[in-house]
Design brief:
Helix 1 packs antiparallel against helix 15, helix 17 packs across helix 18 and helix 19 packs antiparallel against helix 20. The protein is mainly α. 48% of the residues lie in helices and 1% in strands. The protein has a domain of 221 residues. It has 23 helices and two strands. The N and C termini lie far apart (59 Å). Strands 1-2 form a two-stranded antiparallel ribbon. A hairpin with a 5-residue loop joins strand 1 and strand 2.
Length: 714
């Protein structure tokens, strides 16, 4: 009897999509007609999943490859070799690809939407140039409003009303600093944390390991406790005073407001919003004793510190600390296995050493992938340099509470490899890959994601109904499943298309991406409901906020499509989809606010989604009223001149200060639709009145360029 698990429909669908892409590539090379339709004339492959003849070197594996690195032999595959891969330096000696605007000779006539793959530069609300990545969920708030004249002088009048609120949201989302233009202050000796009772310290450790650090094995719990008891004041590979204080800081975030705890653990005495900050400030001071002889506990402490800063809403310090951890990981060679040991046989060193090194690397790699997907960056370690074994599953550790952490760590590492390929091969800032080459990689990555989910053990799944909260798995398993759906959204969101009649292959392929985004968003909503009904949203890891916000951006597209797109599909189906999407979107806003007391960055995400809802509802009412009255659409107007820099809201601005503790729960009046549309879209020579406000921010294909003669949006 064949006891193998049958493949799900989604896996078979992904396999067929991959087969169609390979057949299209073969037809382009040989000039032959695909075998599946020998009587039809030769056609180009679907635009969303096709590859030109120039893309063969980057999309086909090397058939003559004799040896594989340890990682790829373990995963049963090999990376794509490509002279124009993301590891190539995007520039030449004469600066050919280093200009802000590529020359016409290097521009591909088919790459009218390369921005969705490569990202670009944008000015934040403070006039600072920042890179916005193609996978960032915050891309929609990076572009200054084009319909408001703003002076660059510091004493100029400030924006008022919704424009000021959205300006502050955009600034806080990109720079994540309360007062980014404040003058640097003199270094101050940090406050020493209070002496904690053994029981309270043990409680903070337990909260940190159970809810904050259980996902990617950032700090091995057993070894941490062992070294803490044996060498409480010394630095080892698994424990140090620096690492211990970062763990205490994470545990402090999971204390509920009604609990009794020393007010001295707050950065501002007695302020519950700053609980744990005193440990972080002291840990940053203790970094001074780490630089002279860094070890793996230094790397782990930097990762925890970066996670804490990201959860508190400060992406700048997060990138600094995580970047230091990644450079140390590269310096230690953690991405290389024992077979790369020069002159000394790898077998002469204990295997435990290489397992420890590998675990440390995969923790750093996961932190890098998660933050890179969220803010739209390329990972520091590309797939070509991964030459270390996937973390093996240790059955003994799986029985420690919370259970299955070792299995989840191993499977999450496999998932992070796929996520890394999404960033490095499809959405890299490389100037050498065309849009067709990038699109051709999507079916293979989609198949890998579906295969990963198919092979995932049953005890790591979260397939329960949202109402069956008593059967919900541990939050770290819920977070693993949310991450899987978030990677699906990151891969398919650029191909989301609200308008489609399914009349051609392009529409059909985009329909698949659209349905995959909506399905992933619905699953994230279900998992968030399970978490709320079981452990509670206050016990969320920072990654839950990432998944919830990614799903919210997709649901906003489904809940508020343009009026012209609503007539393209069955009215009953479209109406039901919009109603359900609105319901789920409102739930996610409420859920993010519940996560906010633990990780304050969720309040910023909730504020952005609230601004989107208010703007869309206002625009929806205007469109319905205009449609009912039979009035014509407003004529196209070129946007006014926009100055290069935007002013910083004053220090005493209520909009800016409110964002430090979280955005306002509601707005007194919704922002005008025109202002919000120009906020989300870059200035061009013309502006389409019916252009979806989120079309640029999420990299969504729109027919506006076709109607304007193929003009680029950027």
């Amino acid at each position: 009897m064949d006891r193998r698990k049958p493949y799900a429909k989604s896996v078979v669908q992904a396999m067929q999509l991959r087969i169609d892409t390979l057949e299209a590539q073969l037809a382009d090379l040989t000039g032959a007609v695909p075998l599946r339709d020998p009587t039809s004339p030769r056609q180009r492959p679907p635009a969303a999943m096709s590859a030109s003849s120039r893309s063969l070197a980057s999309t086909s594996p090397d058939l003559h490859e004799q040896t594989k690195p340890l990682l790829w032999s373990h995963l049963g595959g090999s990376p794509y070799a490509d002279v124009g891969s993301s590891t190539s330096r995007p520039g030449t000696a004469n600066g050919q690809f280093l200009t802000l605007r590529p020359s016409t000779a290097n521009a591909d006539s088919h790459d009218i939407d390369m921005d969705r793959f490569r990202g670009g530069l944008a000015l934040n609300a403070h006039g600072e140039l920042r890179y916005y990545g193609p996978t960032s969920s915050y891309r929609a708030v990076l572009v200054p409003p084009a319909d408001v004249l703003v002076d660059a002088t510091p004493n100029s009048p400030q924006l008022a009303g919704p424009a000021a609120t959205l300006q502050a949201l955009r600034s806080y989302s990109l720079t994540r600093a309360p007062i980014p233009t404040a003058a640097p202050c003199e270094p101050v000796f940090p406050t020493r944390p209070p002496e904690l009772s053994p029981d309270f310290k043990a409680r903070l450790f337990r909260l940190a390991f159970e809810f904050g650090l259980a996902h990617y094995n950032v700090v091995p719990e057993r070894q941490f406790y062992q070294d803490l008891q044996m060498f409480p004041l010394e630095r080892t590979e698994f424990c140090s005073p620096f690492l211990m204080h970062t763990v205490l800081a994470v545990g402090s975030r999971y204390l509920e407001r009604g609990e009794d705890y020393p007010p001295e653990i707050c950065g501002l005495y007695g302020d519950p919003d700053t609980r744990g900050d005193v440990f972080v400030n002291w840990a940053r001071f203790l970094l001074d004793q780490e630089w002279y002889n860094p070890n793996m506990s230094t790397i782990r402490g930097l990762l925890v510190l970066g996670m804490y800063m990201a959860g508190r809403g400060f992406d700048g310090p997060c990138q600094i600390f995580v970047g230091l951890a990644l450079k140390l990981s590269e310096d230690f060679g953690l991405n290389l296995g024992p077979h790369r040991l020069a002159k000394v046989p790898g077998s002469s060193l204990p295997r435990e050493l290489f397992l420890t090194r590998g675990d440390c690397f995969w923790s750093a790699f996961a932190s890098d992938c998660i933050s890179s997907i969220y803010i739209g960056r390329r990972t520091a370690f590309t797939p070509e340099v991964l030459d270390v074994e996937i973390p093996p599953i240790v059955a003994e550790l799986d029985y420690d509470e919370p259970q299955y952490r070792s299995s989840a760590f191993s499977w999450s590492s496999r998932l992070m490899v796929i996520a890394c390929r999404v960033l490095a091969e499809v959405y890299s800032p490389s100037a050498h890959k065309t849009a067709d080459q990038r699109r051709a990689l999507v079916p293979a990555l989609h198949l890998e994601l579906e295969s990963w989910n198919h092979d995932l053990p049953s005890f790591l799944r979260a397939n329960g109904n949202a109402k069956e909260t008593s059967k919900a798995p541990h939050p770290h398993i819920l977070a693993l499943n949310m991450t899987y759906h978030s990677v699906h959204i990151a891969l398919h969101r650029p191909f989301y298309h609200a308008r489609s009649d399914g009349s051609n292959d392009k529409d059909k392929s985009e329909d698949l991406s659209t349905e995959k985004c909506l399905l992933a968003a619905a699953n994230i909503v279900r998992l968030v409901r399970l978490l709320k009904g079981s452990a509670g949203l206050a016990r969320s890891a920072p990654g839950v906020q990432l998944a919830a916000f990614s799903a919210g951006t997709v649901l906003a597209l489904a809940a508020f499509p343009p009026m012209t797109d609503r007539a393209s599909g069955p009215p009953k189906r479209d109406s039901a989809r919009r109603t359900q999407a609105k319901k789920d979107l409102y739930f996610l806003v409420s859920a993010l606010k519940e996560i906010g007391p633990t990780w304050t960055t969720a309040l910023t995400s909730a504020g952005v989604l609230e601004a989107i809802i208010a703007t869309y509802e206002s625009k929806e009412e205007e469109e319905e009223a205009r449609s009912a009255s039979g009035a014509p659409d407003p004529p196209l107007q070129p946007p006014p001149h926009v100055h290069t820099f935007m002013p910083t809201p004053p220090v005493d601005s209520s909009a800016t200060l409110s964002l430090v503790a979280g955005p306002p729960a509601s707005y007194p009046f919704p922002p005008p639709a025109a202002a919000f549309q120009s906020l989300l879209n870059p200035p061009t020579a013309f502006a389409a009145a019916d252009l979806s406000p989120l079309s640029y921010g999420l990299g969504i294909q729109d027919d506006t360029a076709d109607r304007l003669g193929g003009m680029k949006q950027w």
